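Hello,

Our lab assistant flagged a job as stuck in the queue for most of the afternoon. It eventually completed. Since we weren't sure the result was trustworthy after the delay, we are filing this so someone can double-check. Below is the sequence as submitted and the structure that was eventually returned. Let us know if re-running is recommended.
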Amino acid sequence: MRRCLTLLMMVGCVTCAAWANSITIGQLQYLGTNPQGISAFKVIVDPTGVTSTQLSLANLTVSLKGISQSTGAITTPITLLFVGGQDHPLPACPCVMVGMELFLSANNKPVTLRLANGELFKTAGSASFTLIPPSGHSVLEPGNSIPVTLTSVPEPDTLGLIGTGLIVVAFRRRRIGLGRGQPSRAS
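-- returned structure --
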């Protein structure tokens, strides 16, 4: 029994470790609103030092108060300025949140990147980010920002291996219980 618990804990740790990998490749920041009512948002996407090559993004979209503005295809590193207010695509702040959607592939399929250390990193084809006010504030304040972080997705083979391991552990546990003369739950 103790071995089974130890094995289950090890499998759980491996599973958590496989899903915890992430890389930060940029930042979304609210710069503020000027006296003329023009709001600005800066998006930096710069994987330099994290990945071994540039990223080609299918699209990047910033959304504010139900209105969106998209870039179309872009290549990193890049710094973008999104402007809101009169005569601009986005509305002006005060804002309770701003959203950003990063599309790494046009078909939304997972993408594999080669990291600067040579390892492969597989992530979802798109990622969403939401900049909200810090606790105690009702609207965004100039300088509020969030990191643009991509999270790895497990390979199907990894999930299969973990599932198989859990089945083997359950089978062995049941077999050990039956070998000791304990009744089967199916009885």
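-- support follow-up --
The delay was a queue issue, not a problem with the job. The result is valid. Residues 24-153 form one domain. The helical segments are 2-20, 156-179.
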